[in-house]
Design goal:
39% of the residues lie in helices and 23% in strands. The protein is built from 14 helices and 17 strands. Bound molecules: aspartic acid and magnesium ion. Magnesium ion (MG) binds next to loops.
């Protein structure tokens, strides 16, 4: 079994949906489980619907636009498929009814019931198209397999129950040869049947979950870029493809902020030694990137990860008493409580400095900290991480910039620059 994942950009319109079928024709003999995200920017649009619902505003017009767009793609990609049209129609009617009548009293729970539908719609359309193109395809509701806890919007997987579900719910589809299962990324279900989501951009993680549950031979993420690069081509000239890196390196890169792969994706794959391929759906002949247990190529190419829009905050006790453990634990607690992620930290005798993303939450945190500490901050900074650096690269990078913090370990150099 191979698991394929197609993201929102790959199915943003009928041309994209047709291209999914083209990619699949290259694998006529393979058993495939195909995880699909919501089309294009659907999830963002559904978030607006959820917000409108939460604020008591009418979301019908927003939903009508989504309905028109999805039917437009269905009619192009699978004209005359009455069963698919009625399944899609039914789902839209369900949301309308839900918006009119239902609130669980928990905004996050309501959010998940609404926002999860983008994946349901896209998979109905992709399945219909594959069938129209003469391929076999079985639509599976991911929620029948992926069981989670009740942490809506960031649900955690119940691996044991999900594994039991995979064995029972997928059995009949798995005996069909070759297997062609189409299912949703991003969504799951609680033990009592309520839909959950796994966090934005969670479809990569879903692909890894299915691969883990089915002991797949590999996962391929089909993207609009030819693989993982050592830097963002929009920012750096001469970027290079990382053709082969280890799980460990990929986890480090995504931890520091590389956005190609969702960080949680790699752990389940690493546990079962399932390789991850990142390949281009635009150029499926290109070799792409391989992420697996081997690590011999990791240190050959310096990688750059840039986090813009950072605040560098410096926290000092008012009486200049040393920043000791009690202070630090109180400070950390405030960050955790307000869900502000620390991207970098450094301490001196009397000050503790952190770099965080500049958001409303971090601004509020500053005000909170000011009750007990002297707090200063620098805005408009960027945090640059360089893995496998060499001196010429670092001096080129920092030239003409003010370096506010510099940290180095053997493999990694980090800078807060302004
Ligand atoms: N559709 C979801 C999102 O946009 C999940 C995903 O694309 O991975 O966040
Ligand atoms: Mg998406």
């Amino acid at each position: 079994m191979k698991v394929f994942k197609f993201g929102g950009a790959s199915v943003k319109d009928a041309t994209g949906v047709r291209n999914v079928a083209n990619v699949l024709t290259r694998f006529p003999q393979d058993d495939l489980l195909i995880v699909v995200s919501a089309m294009g920017k659907t999830t963002n649009a559904l978030e607006e619907v959820a917000t409108a619902h939460a604020e008591g505003r009418d979301a019908k017009a927003l939903l009508e636009a989504l309905r028109a767009a999805h039917f437009g793609v269905l009619n192009e990609a699978a004209p005359g498929d009455a069963a698919a049209a009625s399944a899609l129609d039914l789902s839209f009617r369900d949301v309308l009814r839900m918006l009119a009548t239902r609130s669980s009293g928990d905004v996050d729970e309501d959010y998940d019931q609404i926002v999860s539908l983008g994946e349901v719609w896209s998979t109905l359309i992709v399945t219909a198209h594959l069938r129209a193109a003469g391929m076999k395809a079985d639509w599976v509701d991911a929620r029948d397999v992926v069981l989670t806890d009740e942490l809506f919007r960031a649900a955690r997987i119940d691996w044991e129950s999900s594994s039991a579900n995979a064995a029972t719910r997928l059995r009949s589809f798995l005996t069909a040869k070759p297997t062609r299962i189409v299912t949703q990324g991003f969504i799951g279900r609680t033990a009592d049947g309520r839909t959950t989501t796994l966090g934005r951009e969670g479809s990569d993680f879903s692909a890894a979950i299915f691969a883990y549950l089915l002991d797949a031979e590999s996962v391929t993420i089909w993207k609009d870029v030819p693989g993982m690069f050592n830097a963002d081509p929009k920012r750096f000239p001469d970027t290079r493809l990382l053709s082969h890196i280890s799980y460990r390196e990929a986890i480090e890169l995504s931890y520091f902020g590389a956005s190609v792969i969702h960080p949680r994706t790699l752990q389940p794959l690493q546990k079962k030694h399932i390789p991850l391929y990142v390949r281009s759906f635009i150029d499926p002949d290109a070799p792409g990137s391989t992420i697996d247990d081997r690590s011999e190529n990791d240190s050959l190419i310096p990688s750059f990860i840039v986090k813009p829009k950072q605040l560098l905050i410096s926290i000092t006790p008012r009486d200049l008493s040393f920043i000791v453990e009690e202070n630090l634990s109180g400070i950390f607690w405030l960050f955790a409580q307000r869900n502000v992620r620390i991207d970098l930290m450094q301490n001196s005798a009397v000050a503790f400095s952190v770099a965080v993303e500049d958001t409303r939450r971090s601004r509020e945190l500053i005000e909170e900290l000011r009750k007990a500490y002297e707090v200063r901050y620098n805005e408009g900074c960027e945090l640059v991480t360089v893995r496998h650096f060499d001196e010429p690269t670092l001096s080129a990078l920092t030239q003409g910039k003010e370096v506010l913090i510099e940290q180095r370990s053997r493999n990694t150099a980090r800078f807060v620059l302004k």
